[in-house]
What we know:
Layout: E1 13-19, E2 35-42, E3 45-49, E4 52-56, E5 60-64, E6 71-74, E7 79-85, E8 97-100, H1 103-115, H2 122-136, E9 141-142, E10 145-147, H3 152-163, H4 171-177, H5 182-193, H6 197-213, H7 219-225, H8 231-242, H9 246-250
Amino acid sequence: MDNYDPDTSQAAIEVLRLTVTDGEFKAPIHSHKKGQLVMPVTGSMLCEVDNEILMVPTESAVWIPAGLPHRNRPASSASFCFAFINSSKVALPNKCCTLTITPLVREMILYLAESSAKPPALEQTNKITEVLFDMLAQMPREQLNFPLSSDAKLRKVANILLENPSDRRTIKQWAAYLAMSDRTFSRLVVKETGMTFGLWRKQLHIVVSLQQLSQGISVQSVSEHLGYDSVSAFITMFKKALGKSPKRYITKQ
């Protein structure tokens, strides 16, 4: 990757498959002239953009529009595909988002990653690319993001919660910590994130729990890390948010 520049290619799509072997993948915040689709093959990925953090478990992918500064952080020993796409060729949003990836779409991306290392059968590759672009535009969006804020006070709260997601301070306690009224704090959260404080913190718990569950951490340990009173309370929250229990969601394929 050190000597690779996807923006020099004229191809409609170019796919690389990479594996993290040393437990770390260090990449500074950067951007591309092309759009980028990041699909974990094994493990998971966190994508950081300026106003949110997106969780990308296996069987999902994150779409990063052209020109958007970002940083990808795969889990230890993760394997993933980077697909660099000419954004004018596919109808994907102009906003960063997480997409559900069907088994067929997944296999087409893996095929293109494999074929990039060999002399291309151009006609076949073009046909697969055309079908892939049509299908990507139809992939459902997932709510696996934790919105951040440029407001200094709210960003301070976000950083504390990211460091310690089990922090259970109430709106009243957070407002006192920031030296503002309960109402002002509540309005600030809605204005900056589009969510109530309770929903905003729940989104963080979804992101953190998926990250840990995809690494093989037990449901019990994740529940304790997030500060839930019981495993059943955590499972109930998770199921209401994502429609499946934690174990069923992680093993859904």
